[in-house]
Design a protein that fits this description.
Layout: E1 4-6, H1 12-20, H2 24-38, E2 47-52, E3 56-61, E4 66-71, E5 76-81, H3 82-101, H4 104-119, H5 123-130
Antiparallel strand pairs: 1-2, 2-3, 4-5
Length: 131
């Protein structure tokens, strides 16, 4: 089972650069853009950072609410927790950045984040969302 550990406040500034190097701002922006694209209720917010035990980063919108998530590209519409929605938008962001950069580390992160998604309590929703 893949576990997640919250990044402490003092380590937040180094989190994204550690995983994404010079592309860290682009990755963060892509996460925000995909959250905005797929979730009408999203209007910004605080994101928690997590290290996954399979050596993968994860940004999660810090909110306990459910969100109506709509992906017009595959006709997906469903309510998802903030974490499940966040996992999905991170997968979209990683794929988009991977397409731009062809970075081998991103291939690893993309695959390992999908592994985490497959174990998630809302795995079926996440997989339908990203399909």
């Amino acid at each position: 089972m893949i576990t997640k550990s919250l990044v402490e406040e003092k380590d937040r500034l180094n989190f994204l650069p550690h995983y994404f190097g010079e592309n860290y701002l682009r990755y963060e922006l892509l996460v925000f853009l995909f959250a905005d694209k797929f979730c009408d209720e999203y209007h910004g917010g605080y994101w928690d950072f997590y290290h996954l035990s399979n050596s993968c980063p994860l940004m999660v919108l810090s909110s306990e609410s459910c969100h109506k998530v709509v992906n017009d590209m595959n006709f997906f519409t469903d309510a998802m927790s903030s974490e499940a929605m966040s996992v999905g938008v991170n997968i979209f962001a990683m794929y988009a950045l991977l397409e731009e950069t062809r970075d081998s580390d991103l291939i690893h992160y993309y695959r390992t984040l999908k592994e985490f998604a497959s174990e998630h309590i809302e795995a079926s929703k996440i997989m339908r969302f990203i399909d």
